[in-house]
Task: structure prediction
Amino acid sequence: MNSKDWSINVGLLGLGVVGSGVAKALTEKSALIAQHVGRSVSITSILVKDLDKPRSNVVPKSLLTTDPADILEDPHVQLVVEVMGGERPALDYL
Result:
């Protein structure tokens, strides 16, 4: 496999104001990011408190989870971005 054929898989911890901005930037600027780093970037899952909370359509609902293990224990996630705000439970996860 060519090294340029794989994606950097990202798990987000949080989807509030900052997390939504990060998700939007990673999604909308994916081609530019790929140009600069030589790899595509793909959000694989996002930790949220409430799956039923109304949200903008920045990311598909299928990426949302309430279980931190879905991100922290996923061997395919290479980069975890903590955008939860506050010390707890973010510090526990990190």
